[in-house]
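forwarding from the other thread:

> can someone predict this with magnesium ion?

sure thing
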Amino acid sequence: MLVGLNEQNELPPHVAAPSPTAPHGPSGLGGGVGVDRVPGLGHSGGGSTLLGYIGIDTIIEQMRKKTMKAGFDFNIMIVGHSGLGKSTLVNTLFKSQVSRWSSGWGSEHKIPKTVEIKAVSHVIEEGGVKMKLTVIDTPGFGDQINNENCWDPISKYINEQYEKFLKEEVNIARKKRIPDTRVHCCLYFISPTGHSLRQLDIEFMKHLSRVVNIIPVIAKSDTMTPDEKNEFKHRVRKELETHGIEYYPQNEFDDDMEDKNENDKIREAMPFAVVGSDKEFQVNGKRVLGRKTAWGVVEVENPNHCEFALLRDFLIRSHLQDLKEVTHNIHYETYRARRLNDNGGLSDVKVMCQFPLTL
Ligand code: GDP
Ligand code: MG
């Protein structure tokens, strides 16, 4: 069940304390040409002549302020069978106990009879920017003897979030900012067997890659030697290709050559072989997150030890916004178009819009 946070992230009607000359209204640049004085910019010329500064570049600062005020939603789903280190990895990623099930694993851990969907939300703040992070766990996935169609509840959950968003969108009195519960990214944990993907891995990714951004990762990679790891990664990539499984970042959605070059490098390095831990150790006088073994500490953030840092940088520092955009522009759009077509409108969407929808 989704643990709802209050909606404190709603955009207030007037964002930021506007300067007397700052453009107002949703168009942002609407009346901006008359700017003759933008405080604090310190550019040469003062902008009062016809050839002077207009201030278009302040849009970046305006957007930054709005984002800071409003915060943003990021929803990440974790899938893979029990004990693969899903909860630990998410906690390592966000440096906190964001997954409720992090510490409870052990002899008492009960394996659910069917796949459950559990979403927990947290607000994380860094540098004045608020992120409402929702971690959607799927305990029970892959744990049964017969795992046939065990992705059904997961796929249903993903579609339900699209439906929720769609209903909000067509509401006459729709919210200025629709709460976004759509799954932006699904981390799929592959067991570090060193052999090949299981049938279930293939089936899951095949079905779900059409509706959500799948990022496959090799779990607990500290259990493999570097050679085994590289060979396994290579094999997994080949198998994904053979089965036509498109994981994120999908080739077809590269924006331009620069994007393609950057994403090619990422695709060649995937699936990232990760290690998670919430324990700190002292290594060369520094405290690091790691796993202590008889031979030393496996440092989670050390790129020579595993690819956790690569995954973290990719997921959060370079592609977070893109994950949200692909979810909205591709996956949600596909759902929305299908839904509108199927229904010849939105007959069973409760609150009807009286105006034609702009598609
Ligand atoms: P989940 O069931 O997939 O959520 O798995 P947990 O995160 O609860 O972890 C299961 C067990 O594996 C715990 O004892 C963790 O300490 C351990 N574990 C988690 N991540 C790793 C890892 O990267 N490597 C190793 N060797 N063990 C891990
Ligand atoms: Mg767990």
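The helical segments are 58-70, 86-93, 152-170, 199-208, 226-242, 257-269, 308-318, 320-343. thats all i got for now
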